[in-house]
Every structure is written in C-alpha cells, then in structure tokens.
Amino acid sequence: MHGRLKVRTTAEQQEIKAKERAKKMVIYKTAMNLIFSKRKSGELDDEILKITGQVLTENPDISTLWNIRKETILKIKDAMPDLIDSYISKELALTEQCIRVNPKSYNSWFHRSWVLDQGSSVDFHNEFLLCDKCLELDERNFHCWDYRRIIVQKSKTSLENELQFSTDKIQKNFSNYSSWHYRSELLPRIYPSSSDESLLDDQKLAEECNLVQNAIFTDPNDQSAWFYQRWLLFNGDEKFRTSSSHSSLLLTLNNELESCQQLHDLEPDNKWVKLQVCELLRRINGLGNETEILQLVQQLIKVDPLRKGYYTYFGNSTILMNLKKKIKKEFTSLILNTLIVSGSKIVEENQEKRTGQS
Amino acid sequence: MAYDIPSPCDLLVIGTGLTESIVASAASRIGKQVVHVDHRNFYGSNWATFSFNNLQNILGSKSLNKDSTKTVEETQNLNINLNSNTICNIVEKWYLPDEDVQGNIDNQKNLEETINKVPKETLTKSEILRDSRKFNFDLSPKLLYSRGEMVDVLITSGICRYAEFKNVSGIYTVDNVKRTLLSVPCSRADIFNSKDITMIEKRLLMKMLSMCVECETKPEELKEDEMGNFGNFLNAHKIQGKVKKYLIDAVAMATDSTNFHDAVKNIQKFVRSIGRYGNTPFLWTLYGSGELPQCFCRCSAVFGGVYCLNHSTQTIVIGSDGQATGIVSDNQNLKAKFILIEDCLNPVATIKSGISRAILVTNKALTSDQAALITFPSVNSKDPVRILELSASTMVCPQGFYVVHLITHQVTTAVEDLKEAIDTFFTVFESNKNEALNKPQIIWSLHFNINEYNSPAGMLPSNVYSSPGPNSSIDFDDHVIQARNIFKSMFPDEDFLPRVPDPEDIILEGSLEDVLEESKENHKEAQNIHE
C-alpha cells in the first residue's frame, strides 16, 4: 500500500539485540584475558591503559581495572616524571567519560580524586564546571557533592563562594537535602557566633530562619526544609542553655513558634508543623506547655498512625522531663525551707541566749 | 494546466490555515490522497508570518483576501467566498523619517550600527526595511502549553522536528492602580523565591494550585463550588490581592466572571506544563507561529499530499444526492470524497465576532525576558489584553529591536480596543526625546481586526467540513482538538497522526529494483512538495 512503511517488529528488534549482546560478550572476555595476562607479565604500558580504558567506558564499575590503571600511572610517574601531566589529563578525560555513562559510579569519582593528587598542576576551574554540570543533571548526586567538597579543599576555594552555590541550588529547588546540609556545614565556619565558634551568628541565624520559613510555607509537606529548620533551631541545644545568648535564642524560638502556629491554623492536618510546634513548646517552657504538647501528640498519632510509637515516646519523655524538673524544684524548695526553718531556729536560739544573758 | 492534480482524491482542503493543515497531514499520514489548495501565494492563511517587505506588499495588494470577480450561475452549487474581508480596519503607522537625512552613509556601516544598538540619530525607515527579512510578523501569534494538545501532537507525530521552540521566560500581570508590571511566580521555586508576597500568601497560592490540580483526580471535593464563577470561588477561599491577580490573570487565563470549570481546567494545564521545558508553561515557535501550519503541510507532502498555492477555487459542486462531489478550481473539476474549507472562505459562514490585534516594533524591552507574556487585566468588563513581547533571540526581529503583539477580543476597532494598553506601556518614537523617559518607544505599528466566523450546522453537505480560523485565545489547543474531531468524523477508525517510525526501524526492500522504485517515488513526492 502506498505511504505505508515496513517497520521492524519487537521480536526482530529483540533478535538483533541478542546478537549484539553475544558479540559484546566475546569482545569483553578477550579484552579481560589480555589485560590479566599483560599484568601478570608486568607489561604496565600504554596498551594496557588503552584496553582497560575501552572496557571501563562500557562498564565503569570494575574496580580491578581502575586499580591496574593506578599501578600503571604510578609506574609511569616513577619512570618518566616529565610525561606524567599528559597521562593525568588522559585519566581525567576517561573518568569524565565514565561519569557520563554512570554519574553515580563510585569508582570513577574516586579515581578522579586520586588522579588529582598525582599531577603537578590541576585546572580546578574545569573540575568545578564538571560538578556544576553533574549537579544540574541530578541535584542530589551525593558522589558529586562529595567530590565538590574534595576539590574545594584542594583548591582552597572561598567558603562564601560555596555558600552562594548552595543558595543558588536551593533557589532552583529547595527539596535538596544535600544543599541544605552543605549550608549547615558552611555557615558556622563563615559566621561563627561570638560566644561559641561551633554555633551560628545571631543575625545570620535570623536570615536562615527566614529563608527556611519561606520554604516551609511554600510546601509544608517537604521534609528537607523541616530538617534544616530543626538543625538551625535545636543544634547545640545543651550549649545554648548555658550560654549567655540564651535570651536571644528564646526570642528566636518564640518567633518561630508564632509562625509555626500560623501555619498550623492554615494546615491543621500537617504532621510536620504539629511536631515542630511540640518541639518548640517543649524547649520554650516544657513544664508550662505540658497539656498543650500532650494534646498535639494525640493529634499526631491520629494523622500519622504509622509513627504512633515515636509520638508516644515523645509525649512520655516530655512528661518524664517535666517530672524531673518538678522534683528538682520541689527538692530545692524543700532544702531551702529546711535551711530557712533551721536558720530561723538558730536566730531564735541566739536571741533567746542574748535575752537570757542580758 | 501544466501540472497534474490527482482527481478524484480522498480529501480536498481549501486554505492553508492551521486547522486545515493539521487535518491534511493527518489524512496523508494514513495513506489518503490529499489535495491542498490556497488562492493566496503564501502558506498559513490568517495564521501566516510575514517579513517586513512581504507584509507591506500584502497590505498594499490586499491579497490577504483576493477579490474574485467570476460569478457562477449554477444555483445548486456553493460559491466559495474569496472576497470576505477577514482582516480589516488595517492601520499602519511609521514613527520614523522616510529617508536617510544624512545622505550617503556607507550601507555596511549603517547595518552594523543597527545590529549593535539603535543609534537614534540615524535610524530611518529605509534602514529598517533593509533588514526586512529579519522581521517575522505573525497575524495570529500563539503560544504552546508544554503539556498541551499541540505539543503532544507535534511529538507523537514527529512533526516537531520541522520547527524550533524557546521557552517563554516571564509571565506578568499589571497592577491596577500603579500600572506597573507584576511578575507572576509560576513554579514552586518561583513562589519560594518571591519577594512580592508574604509567607501566608505563598501558602494560600500553593494550596489553591494543588487543590485545582487534585480535583482532576478527585472531582467530588470541589462540588460545592461548581455553581459559581471563578471570582466568587477565590473570594470564598479568602484569596485576595496579588495572589488573586496572579491566579485570574495569568494562571487561569480568566476573568472574575469566568465559569469555575473552565478556569480550573486552565489552571490544571498551566501547572502540568510547568517544568517540562523550563520555568514557565509556555513555548514560543522560533521564526513565528506561522511556521506551524507549514510544518503540518510539510508532513502531509512527505506522505504524498499535493500542494497548490496561488490556485483559486470557485465553487463546491453538489451532486444529485445532496453530497458534494468536488470543486471547480481554476476552471478545472476536482473530484473529492471529503472537502474541508476554512471558515473565512465557507459560503455559508457568518461573522460571529472578531479579534483586535496590534503589532509594534519598539526600541527597548519592557521586561528582561527573551519572550514574555503580559496580561493587561480587564477594565469595565472588557476582555483582558494579552501582550507578547519578543526579543531578537526568538528570531522575529534584529538585535536591538522588540516585536510586541497585542491580542484581545474585538469590541470596536483594534485601534480603540488596544489604546489603553499601548498608552500604558509605550510612547511613540521621537529622535530627540529625553533618554530619561523610560517607556519603550514605538518605531512602527500595525493595527487590524480579524473576523471570527460561525458555521451553522446542517447548512453544508455532510461531506463538507468547515474549519475555524484564529481566535483570541493564547494557545493552539482548541484548534488541535477541532482538527482531531474533523479527522475522526471523516475517518472514524483511523489513528490521528500516529508516530512516524525512526529511520533505523524502517526496512528498505533488499533488491536494487525496489530501492530504485522507492527513490523514484520519493522524487515524485519531492516534486509534489515543490509544486
């Protein structure tokens, strides 16, 4: 019939594929045999680099081959130190190609960072470009985030630069644990608090609180933002309590509580906001807010029954904590009372003595 | 006739507008013999795109609607309506001096200057016309929803390979009081980053969007709101201020009084389309929307459709059984099983309403986007004006210039309907004007109206179909749906534009004769396209 095209059927396509696969298998086996026999006889030369390279571009996850390449590179570095840089750039090209094949290949990323240590000079600009590209394709590729941290260290890039990078990533899509986490590592190093170097500066803390609140209000079901907020507010809990900035922290917590309660009014069924309100109430005044906390715990069990045990534990631990506080308080007042009573007795006795003497 | 038009054919299409071209390509694709004629000498009918010179020639000769003086006596037949003034109230204005006052400046240098920056002292009409081919003016500019009907059909059919697209990068509405642009946050990231609305407003906006999307799968949830209009619905959900403006003007492409269901459908399409190709839901066709009818025609020609431009048609011949048997075209009888005619040529169609259009060439951008969609909201219950601002990167003008399209429903004439919107954002070009005036200046403007038609049911023979011309909506989807319906009613059991197989899956016949045979046929097809 006119205008009709003959198209391969799926069976034909499968047959073609099976043939191709068999052919690949033969090539793979010959290549592997050749590599192992060459290594046995100590022929760590350009040819072995070529063959391992070809196999690795097809399958970048054969650690043995990467290790043979490392051996070869080290040997060349010993024998011909002048030529090493050109070999390094070939290794970089190969790993880049392998990362393209499998962006989550542990071996490729590791080999790349190993290679960086072997050469005399590295163009870090290229490395950052590679990271940018990979993180654009998959913003949560932790291999690449790790590699980025390695090159930041090696190249001594400014941390402010990296903070900006993390901000850009979050602005593109805030459901990004990797980027929030990166911030939490960078911020205290760039803006340490005056009282404690491991904590965040007050003003920066307020800015970050605002940023994460915007994310939470935009999508209260996204847990990455809640986790970051938890880190911001409750990180170094114990230290804060004893530090001088206690009152400013209390202010921050109260502000956060207010906006969380606003959100709770808008989203009465959201478990994250309920839990956060509980956490905040407990920290601001666990004893005074006990009934409210326990009410919220009951609601949490209702909206999220799968985590019933966790919420019950939360409630019980609050009660226990409050009990401890009460006991401590009563114990203190008991001692105080005893002291006062015994103190006044001494005074009385003294007075009696004095009056007796006079 | 020097060339051979196949007769009888399966489908004869009159007019190369978008709907006609889609049906033609769909019919050719399933192996039907299609003959596609147009009395105009260009593709696209009222959807066409023109360069500066072509536009001026056409305005001059009025060949948009060529007069037909021939009268046909046979009363039983239907005379094709070639002299309908579908495009009317045309007002063209230049705000530049005609000639280069400074005399003989080196042409090359002038051109370079135009490309780099607009040098106000030397900018003249002749200079712009020298770059005529770099301008692409659409009669009916439209956008594609990234997950709309048009994109779907372009992808499944493989016709997308004939055209290129760019994402619209900004969507705006206008503050009612201050008359300034308000950027509409489209995606979740936009809403998160927005500095214009409070956190509570962000929550309400997100909640409304997800509510509208969810009611696609759970329609019962919004039952109680079904009766009212969209404005009341938003009020009932306490949505006010900027968020309400965003939702009505941009996301729902609606007005206060729009029916609730239509608005929610638009919101669903808007939200679905975000993030597929970029941050906004819309795509713009590079070199102008007039590319699309041509893409479909090309697909039709590849599958054996025969094309004849500049070919006038006189009558639809009706047989004794009341069915159309074919048409008389340039004194030739062409027989066809089905006939499709664009409604501005349809003898029984009547004018229903119209579109008010303006095209401006300006020297400065309103926005920093490569392509921006601005909604100028409705005043006094008039329809909103949609404004498309296109930069040189969308291939519609040379560097340093901007093409602005304005589209609204016709109330009086294009000049009056669009005056308020134009005066709000633009001023006319004056070479000595103070630079401090920030409004973009209009270098050239064209106003016109396009009629929309009604084709009453039952007035045409059952094998003659009438297809709609452009409307005032911002996207193509209505027309794709109508084209599919026409196709389905002609060929009920056939697939509408099925996928074209990949080249590596096509089995070429083994023997040399077969290959030669096929290449001969391909050659024939190529000739057909050429014609």
From TrEMBL, chain A:
GO cellular component: Rab-protein geranylgeranyltransferase complex
Repeat listed as a keyword: yes
Identification of the protein by name: Geranylgeranyl transferase type-2 subunit alpha
InterPro entries: Prenyl_trans_a
Family of the protein in this entry: Belongs to the protein prenyltransferase subunit alpha family.
Family annotation (PANTHER family): GERANYLGERANYL TRANSFERASE TYPE-2 SUBUNIT ALPHA, PROTEIN FARNESYLTRANSFERASE ALPHA SUBUNIT/RAB GERANYLGERANYL TRANSFERASE ALPHA SUBUNIT
Statement: the UniProt record of this protein carries the keyword Repeat: yes
GO molecular function: Rab geranylgeranyltransferase activity
Keywords, comma-separated and alphabetical: Prenyltransferase, Repeat, Transferase
EC code(s) of this entry: 2.5.1.60
Organism name: Daphnia galeata
Reactions listed under catalytic activity: geranylgeranyl diphosphate + L-cysteinyl-[protein] = S-geranylgeranyl-L-cysteinyl-[protein] + diphosphate
UniProtKB/TrEMBL annotation, chain B:
Pfam families: GDI (PF00996)
Positions in coiled-coil regions: none
GO cellular component, one term: Rab-protein geranylgeranyltransferase complex
Main location: cytoplasm
GO biological process: intracellular protein transport; small GTPase-mediated signal transduction; vesicle-mediated transport
UniProt-annotated location(s): Cytoplasm
InterPro entries linked: FAD/NAD-bd_sf, GDP_dissociation_inhibitor, Rab_escort
Keywords from the UniProt entry: Cytoplasm, GTPase activation
GO molecular function: GDP-dissociation inhibitor activity; GTPase activator activity
Function: Substrate-binding subunit (component A) of the Rab geranylgeranyltransferase (GGTase) complex. Binds unprenylated Rab proteins and presents the substrate peptide to the catalytic component B. The component A is thought to be regenerated by transferring its prenylated Rab back to the donor membrane.
Family designation: Belongs to the Rab GDI family.
Matching PANTHER family: CHM, RAB ESCORT PROTEIN 1, RAB GDP-DISSOCIATION INHIBITOR
Protein name: Rab proteins geranylgeranyltransferase component A
Organism this protein belongs to: Daphnia galeata
